[in-house]
Amino acid sequence: MFSKILIANRGEIACRIIQTAHRMGIRCVAVYSDADADARHVAMADEAFNIGPAPSSESYLKADKIIEIAKQSGAQAIHPGYGFLSENTQFAEACEANNLVFIGPPSSAIAAMGSKSAAKAIMEKAGVPLVPGYHGDDQSPDTLRKEAAKCGFPLLLKAVAGGGGKGMRVVERMEEFDDALAAAKRESKNAFGNPDMLIERYLTQPRHVEIQVFCDKSGKGVYLAERDCSVQRRHQKVLEEAPAPGLSDETRKAMGEAAVKAAQAINYVGAGTVEFLYDVDGSFFFMEMNTRLQVEHPVTEMVTGQDLVEWQLKVAWGDPLPLEQSQVKTRGHALEARIYAEDPDQDFLPATGNLRYLSTPDESAHVRVDTGVTEGDDISIHYDPMIAKLIVWDETRDQAINRMVQALEHYRIAGVKTNIRFLHALADAQPFREAELTTGFIEDHRELLFPKSKLDTHKALVLAAGFVLEQRKSREVISTDPWSPFGRQNSWRMNSEYAQPLQLQVGDEIHELKVLERDDRYQVFVGDSVYNLTARLDDDFLQAVINGHRISIHGNLHNDQLVLFYEGDTFQCTVYRETYGFEEMAGEGSLAAPMNGAIVAVQAKVGDKVTAGQSLVIMEAMKMEHAIKAPADGIVTEIFFVEGDQVSEGAELIAIEVTADAEEEAG
């Protein structure tokens, strides 16, 4: 077995590989960019080398530098993880040329599946079922338009070299085709350096079911059950599970055998995933093959009891597959939720910030957390905004869902927006519990997945007051006389009762509270209501009783920014001070950057008349494009950035003079 390997990746997957390698007695070499100098994967590795500046194009995508470090460190093999260079044919070839084992498939297999159009031709020849569409070499707009008409609508435009939902557009009718094609080509070229497209008939109620396959160097192949990855946003997976609910044993066997046939058709070696679209009538069609370890591999590990990274290392070393197909068994049900720094209420806009507070559920045989970050780390614009993967297992699907709901309630983050509340609503939604799964699940159930807060606003304000006041108490200077009122921070007055004011800002609204402190309790006045409160704070855990109702919550108070966590929900407020001078991020009629990122395209000129909702700027952040739209009808008076510029969240991009008609409508 290898004695030392280099991991050409970062974050969660680098940490995951190191864990298994160390358990097998293999030393690990990490690489890191300037932004990742203090990252968790660097601390976990036996040694680490700086590889360049923060942008991945100048660090984690520098194949020659990585190979140089591997040779310098004495590593025998390179594990690419997923993303970055994991499916780069030239990198795999370079490893082979430098006598380094690439822990993945042969470069020829990556090349065969790297082009979706070529892959479909190979699968068609191998007898694997395909969705109707076009995957030819002629990429002229006229040809693509004609093939689109043949295919029929709705259809899916997909980048030939794509992945992760990039360079992908659903087109409902011919009138939308040209604009969608231009946008998909631009995004594909920026992400992969290749603008070529393929066209597929878009199934209206499909499920995304994929098969984990493994092949060894002798040509033997097995499949390790299937995963359902239907719940997606922007064509990117959000929640995955294994096994896929509702499939017959015959369908599982047919899909598994088709997946192994697909892998063997390209002389595959190692871990791979064959993705299928599964239709309501039980038919399934080859979609693509990912020639690497998948993000969602832990759910397969949880139901099979196998360590897939260990399998990768053994197969790359030349060992035969650890199990025959007849020996592969599954038990129970597993789910994985991808915890992202993003704002689901703003169309899942990627978020940046500091993880100033991070508390995760306790790990056990039922709960697993795969992450590459620790409290205090920054989520930057340079890399994918995934914070962690939360994986749960139990005997049945219902029990596993209950585990997931509970675990999400115990996952608490402050300092950056996350999708935890959304994931909690998703996992607990009745249609999900009943396995009504399609790739349009999120759009079909938006009302269920974006619920109102579980906490009544007044009750939340009272809890916030209790947290603030109890934390102040915990920081009081200890007096030599414990009964002396002069050492207290409760605005005590001699010979009078004094209700101290407390202002809490929630969004744009400032709430005026008054708090009267007794020896063992508070009276909190909110508007015309009075609440009797007893509270006890232990670190971040508040036990409170409000008018006889006992509530336990967790919270984090930092620089007067308070976040309370309650049953998967959050309540955020600011302890308001007049001197803060709160200001709006952007003025009326202006267009502000909603995140840190880069300008990809400016779609207006000074003097242009624009209408509300018109796309004016395309920004790229976290490897995704985002359209910034006009807030109102008006005339563009200034443009502050050009294509290629880096901008910070809140920066004014374009100034718009709002027209009189728009102002009248607003009034």
From TrEMBL:
Pfam families: Biotin_carb_C, Biotin_carb_N, Biotin_lipoyl, BT_MCC_alpha, CPSase_L_D2. InterPro entries: ATP-grasp, ATP_grasp_subdomain_1, BC-like_N, Biotin_BS, Biotin_carboxylase_complex, Biotin_carboxylation_dom, Biotin_COase_C, Biotin_lipoyl. One of its GO terms (molecular function) is ATP binding. Pathway: Lipid metabolism; malonyl-CoA biosynthesis; malonyl-CoA from acetyl-CoA: step 1/1. The keyword Transferase does not apply. It catalyses: N(6)-biotinyl-L-lysyl-[protein] + hydrogencarbonate + ATP = N(6)-carboxybiotinyl-L-lysyl-[protein] + ADP + phosphate + H(+). Keywords: ATP-binding, Biotin, Ligase, Nucleotide-binding, Transit peptide. The keyword Transferase does not apply. Its cofactor is biotin. Residues 580-657 form the Lipoyl-binding domain. Residues 120-317 form the ATP-grasp domain. Residues 1-447 form the Biotin carboxylation domain. This protein is a component of the acetyl coenzyme A carboxylase complex; first, biotin carboxylase catalyzes the carboxylation of the carrier protein and then the transcarboxylase transfers the carboxyl group to form malonyl-CoA. Acetyl-CoA carboxylase is a heterohexamer of biotin carboxyl carrier protein, biotin carboxylase and the two subunits of carboxyl transferase in a 2:2 complex. PANTHER family: CARBOXYLASE:PYRUVATE/ACETYL-COA/PROPIONYL-COA CARBOXYLASE (PTHR18866), METHYLCROTONOYL-COA CARBOXYLASE SUBUNIT ALPHA, MITOCHONDRIAL-RELATED (PTHR18866:SF33). This is Biotin carboxylase. It comes from Marinobacter vulgaris.
